[in-house]
Amino acid sequence: MQPTLIIHILAGSLGLVSGFVALYATKGAPVHRRAGMIFVWVMLTMTFTGTIIAAVRGAAPALNIPAAVITAYLVVTGLITVRPTVRGARWLTIGAMVVAFAVGLTTLSFGFQAASGARPGMPAFPYFMFGLIGLLGSAGDLRMIRSGGLQGAPRLARHLWRMTAALLIAAMSFFFGQADELPRALRISGLLALPVLALFVTMLFWVWRIRIRRNLRGIAGASASQI
Q1: Phi-psi region for residue 87, left (φ > 0), alpha (ψ -120 to 50) or beta?
Q2: Which tens digits make up the pLDDT trace of 129-140?
Q3: Cα–Cα distance between 45 and 97 in angstroms, integer?
Q4: How far is it, in rounded angstroms, from Cα 215 to Cα 154?
Q5: Is residue 209 within 8 Å of 157, Cβ to Cβ?
Q6: Who contacts 222 (Cβ-Cβ below 8 Å, separation ≥6)?
Q7: What's the pLDDT band for 14 if we cut at 50, 70, 90?
Q8: Structural domain boundaries of the chain?
C-alpha cells in the first residue's frame, strides 16, 4: 500500500473520531477546542492526499478532486469564522469564496452532464451535492464580506454548519464509499447510514437551536414589548 494512501486512510479515520468528539462535546470547552483543531489538521491532510490519489491514480478525479476542495474549503472557512483575527483572514475568505464558486459551478455542470448521460458510470447526485455546497457556501461568504463580518448566533451557526458538513462528507465517503473495506457483518445499508443520519440530524438541531430559535425568541420578545 502506498504511503500516500496510508496517510489518507489514517487521517480520514482520525478525522471521523475527532469530528464526532468535537461535535458532541460541550461547545467552547477544552475538549471541544482540542478535538476541533485536530479535526482541522487531519481533514486538511486527508483532502490533500485524496486530491493526489485522485489525480495520480485516476480515481474518479472529476468527482473526488472537487469533493476534496469543497471539504477543505468548509474546514478552513469554518475555522476562521470563529478566529477572525487570524492574519490575512479577510483575504483568505475572499480567495476561498472564489475557489468555492468556481469549483461549485464546474461540479454542478458535471452533474447536469451525468444526468444527461454524457458522463456514464457516475451518478449525478454527488456532483449536484458538491456543486450546491460550493455555490451556497460562496454566496454566504459574499454576504458576510459585504456585511463586514458576523457576530453572535450567525457566526456560530456558520462555524457549526461548515464543520459539520465537512464531517458529514467524510462520514459519507467512509461509510458509503468505502463500505467494501468493512467486515462483511457490518455491510448493512441501514446500519451504515446511522452515523451519517445522526450527523445530519445533529447539524439541523444545532442550526435550529443557535440561529432559528434565537430569531424566534427575538421576534416574540419584540412583539411582547409592543403590546
Answers
A1: beta
A2: 999 999 999 999
A3: 21
A4: 10
A5: no
A6: none
A7: very high
A8: 3-179+186-225
Dihedral sign from CA coordinates of 97, 139, 23, 128:
negative
Distances (CA, A) of 94 to 140, 141, 169: 11, 8, 23
CA torsion angle for 34, 155, 203, 62 (degrees, to 10)? -90
pTM confidence score: 0.84
Q: Contact 23/164 with Cβ under 8 angstroms?
A: yes
Q: From residue 135, how far is each of 65, 99, 104, 132, 201 by CA, in Å?
A: 16, 10, 5, 5, 22
Under 8 Å between Cβ of 110 and 62:
yes
CA dihedral of residues 17, 49, 128, 158 (deg, nearest 10) = 50
Residue with cell 454566496: 139
Q: Categorize the per-residue pLDDT at 213 as very low, low, confident or very high, splitting at 50, 70 and 90.
A: low
Amino acid at 49: T
The residue count for the chain? 227
| Nearby residues of 36 by Cβ (< 8 Å), 6 or more positions away | 18, 22, 163
The Cα-based distances of 54 to 60, 67, 87, 138, 162 in angstroms read 6, 10, 32, 24, 23
Residues 6+ apart with CB under 8 A from 25: 31, 32, 35
Question: What's the mean pLDDT in 213-218?
Answer: 53
pLDDT digits (tens, 9 = 90+) for 106-124: 999 999 999 998 887 788 9
For residue 149, the model assigns a pLDDT of 79
Alpha-carbon span 170 to 68, nearest angstrom: 10
